């Protein structure tokens, strides 16, 4: 395995309005994306990697010699890596409403000539998939070898399989869920309330005030972080370790876990946009493709054509293995080809980003088998889903 | 079972300074308390009920005809109830640093002539027990029939058994833990950070500014509430029910769970003191009696003399049954008499406040047996722990 090396983002402007699930539309927009590897002759080796809450199009490689600029799934994507860029042409795309280059709340609303701020329309997982499909069109990709993602990224992969069944041969859904539980929504809403009630939020127009709702974002991130780690992992990493060996009897830092979370919160509040945080948690809460099928996930997935890989992690209490079981069962009910791996990993939800060899091997062998459908740069006859 | 009827709080002033674990002291203080039932001739039927985070001395009965003034454990304490006030003399006491009458951050610091605010000293579970022991002295109670509490109240009961082994015959520890986990501490710290970074907190001196850090308290309470309920219970009660039948595509209220939590947060922020919230969560975080015994809970409990009743609830993920198992094991290691009930209840941590008949029956029969040690108003020979 070698590093993918230095990469650069690209961008594409779309001047056709995008109608949204809400009934609103985005007049025009830019999507920022990156690609790794080479698109083959018949464009059959493309894999779309969808990102989760705070990630971006920058999936793999670096922007400079600085390892701090490494992409968020660099352990997964690259030459010789589980998703092997010697074989596949991999695309990462920043979602609409995010804050890493694609059109979002910080950009100018053409209707007003001012920054969108809180007026950026609420976008859904399905809206993102529609915008990604346009990017695929523009890149000449009629059918992806796979659409893949973890967590919120897995929801996008699942939505692709429902909205565009003929446009992906494989659907890879990792550490995800067909819908959030009341507890998931509750955590999201506490985070949103922290941001919305921060006086520096200014109703979403904080850009004009030259401030950011740092305190709200910080609390939101601290809280989110707790749900990404398992109780056991937190106990193993931090336990009740004290920063300075004894209780301080004040409200500064006593425990290492406090130090860690506050650091994570502080860091996050310096680079992440508060309006984006609100938008993306709403996309999470709203995702529920079975809603239009009377809550019947089997019916919801009845028109899918892809083969599926699902992976869950035993200690993930955000999107627990039970949520993956629901998807597996619904796919099996439809006689779909499903590979399911439940990885006994201690790291909670974050496990999907980490190097567990069993997990990596599952994904690697899945993509190796999937590549057998592609022969000498061309899709074999009958391999199309 | 009849209601205990209308009750009234009493208060007692202590002019002897109370030395605290932190090394600081409280010069003088008032404890507010309530009593129910009648103290018998040899003062052997007294039960101390310790309260958790946001409760008080008002354990049972009402303050008026208004049922909204009912005490927080009225289902547990009263004539004919599991802790039967026809037999026992029950005392509820508001802890130091709380905001329901006993000396706390809103009161005047005699050293400065101003409200304590953030300068109220950090108090621990053990400090509370010391202050409660002085109240017991003043009421002429040398030995309690039992000290009892749920959650943080259970920690106080446990601390009583360690600090004053001869002063209680029974120790009743419900839905509690011998120490918080890293995840427990993490949730507490997020709540504290929400309060501390609310501009209306004013470094703890918000009283002088005529405001309260409502937004911080609200977020703290919403978050706390999530940890009091089980995932399953939240799913059963709220699921993904929408307030108005369809997505609003904004940041108002979509889901019933959001409405419920925001309501709980709003209500809490109108009556609870922010400095008290900080203090009480610190007391929770600091509680770790085994810390002075090299982390060995068996050693920690080796000097206890009481008999123990422990109760846990299967879906309590705040203080899970495993935490009770640790205490039971350490007590068994010391050949203590332990009754342990693990109640299969869906309601999470809050189950300790609710009417589960199996739970109520366990407590009822425990107190009935304990009362057999008391005969005709006098402790039987040999019954002393």
Q: Tell me about the biggest sheet of chain A?
A: 8 strands, mixed
Quaternary arrangement of the chains shown? homodimer
Helical element count of chain A?
11
Radius of gyration of chain A equals 21 Å
The helix/strand order of chain A is EEEEEEEEEEHEHEHHHHHHHEHEHEE
Largest interface: A-B, 54 and 54 residues
Mean pLDDT of chain A: 96
Uncertain segments of chain A are: none
Q: What's the end-to-end separation of chain A, in Å?
A: 30 Å
- The secondary-structure class of chain A comes to alpha/beta
Strand order of the largest sheet of chain A: 1-4-8-5-11-12-13-14
Binned, the helix content of chain A reads 25-40%
By DSSP, the count of extended strands of chain A is 16
State which percent range the strand residues of chain A make up: 15-25%
Q: Looking at the structure, what is the overall shape of chain A?
A: globular
